[in-house]
Design a protein that fits this description.
single chain, 332 residues, Spore Coat Polysaccharide Biosynthesis Protein SpsA, Chain A, nine-stranded mixed β-sheet, 17% strand, elongated, binds uridine-5'-diphosphate, binds magnesium ion
Amino acid sequence: MDNITLIIPCYNEQENIPEFYKQIKGVEIPDCQISCLFIDDGSQDSTREILQELSSRDSRISYISFSRNFGKEAAMLAGLDYAEGDAVVIMDADLQHPIDKLPLMVEYWRQGYDDVCGRRVDRADESWAKRNFTNLFYYCYQKVSRYPLQRNVGDFRLLDKRCVAAIRLMRETQRYTKGIYTWIGYKKKEFPYEVLPRFAGKSTWSFMALLKLAVEGIISFSTVPLKIASILGLAVSGLALLYMMYIFITVLIYGDPVAGYPTIMVTLLLLGGIQLLSLGIIGEYLGKIFGESKDRPLYLVDEYNGEKFIYSPASVCRERAGRLAAKEHSNG
Ligand code: UDP
Ligand code: MG
């Protein structure tokens, strides 16, 4: 019997969870036991109460409640940290990920694939701006990163327990999970699926959030922007040198007076702009280092299956299971 745990991050999903539960109860996969691990990411509606009620009624339902909203990336990591079983499937609570694909995913997994990921074929409900922005992002990312990014592939995926163990090792606080999936490698299999419309409620992603995630993705997996800053600096210095020689020659040989003010202003502004841009790029990385160096936990659990959670060394170890395992491994 295979044990599969569904990891479902939920943020204000009170209308969706009962329907999700109803649909998941109807799924039958031969020789396979499905359980659900919901992560209530600091919802302000009655998501937590619904989860409490469900888990007291059905032993296959468990949940984690965060002390506040930590974001979907943290919620997914918590799910991976706490999930047990032979494989996990990460799914959205809003029923946008078709539940009827589960048997197919398990089928591929049983064929020996470690990471079975859904590729969106239909993005019809997305705005023109979002779609084009996404395209631009993929293009830029692919240009600057060494790791290939799977196009139109998101968080809807089945991960073998080996992949789960690998992702637990990656404790960076500013997470770009899509990049992490490709970074870990293992045998991947894509299958197409149609994104369904949200069952109820509104998507929490704004354009700014997407933009932030895009910058996150590039900064997390590439140092090319830093190199661009150096190359830009070098190129401008080179041009400035040439221009200086040109001024020298015109003044010394031809005796032409050089018009001062406009040239100085243009160079000044150009250089100032480039300097600020480079500083900004360095700042992005510095901010990342600052964030990581604090070494804070990625999320705080308020409640786990009805029990109030008190942080103790043991529970912290559990959250940092990955790091602990890595240490034990290196100690032999
Ligand atoms: N989500 C979360 N924390 C957040 C935002 C979203 O756990 O801060 C969950 C949300 O409940 C849903 C999933 O992440 O299950 C995807 O969110 P959403 O539907 O808003 O995003 P979209 O489908 O538009 O990408
Ligand atoms: Mg959604």
